[in-house]
Amino acid sequence: MTARVVVAGIGNDFRRDDGAGPAVARLVAASTPAVDIGPIAEPLDLIGRWEAAGLAVLVDATRSGAPAGTVSLVDLGDAGARSGSSTHAIGLDRVVRLAQVLGTAPDRVVVVGIEGQDFSDGTGLSAAVERAVPLAARRVVDLVTEAS
Amino acid sequence: MTPSGASANHEIDVHGLARVEGEGSLHVAVRDGVLERVELEIFEPPRFFEAFLRGRSFEEPPDITARICGICPVAYQMSACAAIEDACGVQVDDRIGRLRRLLYCGEWIQSHALHIYLLHAPDFFGCRDAVELAALDAAVVQRGLRLKKLGNHIMETVGGRAIHPVNVRVGGFYRAPDREEITALIEPLRRAREESLETVAWVAGFDFPEIEADYRFVALSHPDHYAIEAGRVASSDGVDATPAEFALLAVEEHVARSSALHSRLNGRDPYLTGPLARYALNEAKLPKVARDAAARAGLGPVCTNPFKSVIVRAVELLFACDEALRLATDYEPPEPPAAKVVPAARAGAGATEAPRGMLLQRYELDAAGTIQSARIMPPTSQNQLTIESDVRRVVESGLELSDAELTARCELAIRNHDPCISCAAHFLDVSIDRS
Predict the structure, then answer these.
(1) How far does B239 lie from chain A, in Å, by closest CA?
(2) Of B60, B306, B379, B385, which alpha carbon lies 20 to 30 A from B420's?
(3) What are the boundaries of each domain within chain A?
(4) CATH topology (fold) of B10-209+329-433
């Protein structure tokens, strides 16, 4: 039996490059067996949506200082992979840990990031991020294919 | 935390308080066994929402102010609508009012479930966070997650999405949900009501420090029901004011250490909004199921132990589930879904009860509906002075504790009020200085 694969875009289509994650997730879900469980606004919402998945791929815009459009990949199974601290919300690494303790975590969680540059109000991605969307989608499709 | 050599001197610095909303820190200094200073600093940058609302259209505050907070966007939307409608002399249809209340119940359910189960309860079990609590009792955390999920689902059904709902407009809603969409909430709400009853019983069994405070409570009060989305402003010392009148009574001042304004009643007296205040002023308006559960949990008509706010919050969670169930059962789609609102060159104020306390907004419009001035009073800035008093009380009663224990107690004292520092800035680092 093929493991269930889920993909979720994290972000907001109305904050320009923050919509990169949902854009990639839509592309991937349209062309692979992966189920789009997004968009996700806060990590805690993943619990209840990704149950019984062999692989969960989360796609999010990043702001690390890298050139706009840079695609990165973090496997949350890696030691030391931690999300930034948050307050009312619970960070992604803690949500993964919580799901593991509850016995509902996917076997593997991978975060694919696309470096954004414009997070202002409005729709539409900046040119560099627009060009990176198919590249990031390719990375996700490879992960989905490998898991399937 | 900065430990010191002399036991009679403490200096506690908590840099980056966990499990509260926003960025802040707490500094406590004890000299020769006497508490010298407690300062709650809010260093989240000022956000200038009031400034950039000026010059915008009267229809924009619900969407703009919702962005102040991802946990209580409905509170911002509802207070903004109430203020603009007050300025324009508009009374909305009762069906619109009930749909707003249903949406608001969704926010109370998700926010209270999040705070009780994932942010506050771990303190009472000596756990660092919800992950450790889940390792102790997975079923309990799963119950909290189910309740939170239902709150989100109500917000999605009525508001279009759970974070920053898009269906709210001045005058009502862009679209009224179909009866079938709301009817589908009834069975999940019945289960949630049972699980919120279990929640009250669960939190009532926590071990609470014996501390009582002499609070000046401020909350909305309504003659017909437990106030959420409308009412007059009442206080435990006799204030009875419209939101517009209260905006004049509550004087805000800037202090150097905080990017949140400090509120004082009549420019003098600190006060507290939130679950303890609502419960103290409106307990008799709760439905029987909630009053009975409160009595079984050992609550009288007024609770002044801030640590027991978790019980009051659980009673309000039960109330919100019961109220949402009633509203969903009786739902009639409003037609039209929004009242027509014609701008007027006037000022208006609106106040509603965010999960963590009363939220007041005031706007001045010109005849074209352009905003001339805006004022936003979030609950955390109103509560900040009282939270500092709570911490002072906790330190004074716990000087014999180690720095680590005292720091944990201080953090809990702040989390008791579920502060939303992001909203207030306009959380938390703790420092205890005994040197």
Answers:
(1) 32
(2) B60
(3) 4-147
(4) Cytochrome-c3 Hydrogenase; chain B (1.10.645)
